[in-house]
Write a structure and sequence with these properties.
two-stranded parallel sheet; C8orf32 fold; 266 residues; seven-stranded antiparallel sheet; single chain; alpha+beta; 9 helices
Length: 266
């Protein structure tokens, strides 16, 4: 299918990417650990240059742990198919291996761009409710490719895993949850660090955008090698006119104040 057709599909499906996430009870459990002030000192490691603290419990953490358990099974399937493509019984695994293989032939930014483009084209945007009959279903890459569709966190997870398989170090990969302050929705993207700069890989666009150039979003959570972390309370990255830069963000209250509860997207 041509790129223009997929572009129309993205526009039609963008509204499917407002993550409904979790019910109120689970949200209240997502609080900063008492040791947060000490952790918040490390401010330059995560995308957007903002401090983050470990999330010890809650719905988001449970979702990610479930994805990791399912990923273990998918990694076995990928290993089997990589060793015997002719005997592979999973078209999704073969497609994923082709995407990773093409990316390995490239270097630097081109490698990231190859995966961003290929995953965007391989998955059609569709809401969890339309596809699974329930809200907020997270799927690992092979399940997403087998379905042929997914919403923003499914794209982000697929890119996160593909980038790792393509050779990027765990410390240079993240999944970031952002609050779209214009549409009142939550959105997930993959993020990869290249030459000390974080690039966001978004299912809404082919071009990769550096975190300092993201506009009208507020980062709320980040997932990486240390599990699920919550960003310290921070102002909007930039308004529509671009009057504020991400570099000028100031973390409010490093002295242990809890971040606001994660708002549920309707």
């Amino acid at each position: 299918m041509g790129l223009s057709v997929y572009s129309r599909a993205w526009r039609a499906g963008i509204v499917a990417c407002g993550l409904a996430w979790f019910g109120p009870a689970g949200l209240r459990a997502e609080t900063l650990e008492p040791s947060a002030p000490a952790e918040l000192i490390q401010r330059s490691v995560e995308p957007f240059g903002l401090a983050a603290s470990s999330l010890p419990s809650g719905g988001l953490r449970d979702k990610w742990l479930d994805v990791q358990r399912r990923l273990d099974d998918e990694m076995v399937q990928l290993a089997l198919c990589e060793g015997d493509r002719d005997g592979c019984v999973s078209p999704a695994a073969l497609k994923f291996l082709d995407i990773v293989g093409a990316a390995r032939l490239r270097e630097g930014r081109a490698r990231l761009g190859e995966i961003n483009r290929a995953i965007n084209l391989a998955i059609r945007p569709i809401s969890d409710l339309a596809q699974h009959g329930q809200i907020d279903v997270w799927t690992p890459p092979l399940a997403t490719l087998a379905h042929g569709g997914g919403d923003c966190e499914d794209y982000a997870i697929a890119k996160f895993v593909a980038l790792r398989r393509a050779g990027l170090a765990p410390d240079d990969l993240r999944i970031v949850v952002l609050r779209d302050t214009i549409h009142g929705e939550d959105h997930a993207v993959a993020a990869a660090r290249l030459d000390g700069r974080w690039l966001t890989l978004d299912n809404r666009r082919m071009a990769m955008v550096e975190d300092t150039d993201v506009r009208n979003f507020r980062p709320t959570f980040v997932i990486g090698p240390h599990g699920v972390m919550r960003y310290a309370d921070a102002p909007l990255l930039a308004d529509a006119s671009g009057n504020h830069s991400a570099a000028s963000l100031v973390v409010s209250s490093l002295a242990g104040s809890a971040a606001r509860p994660f708002e549920r997207a309707d």
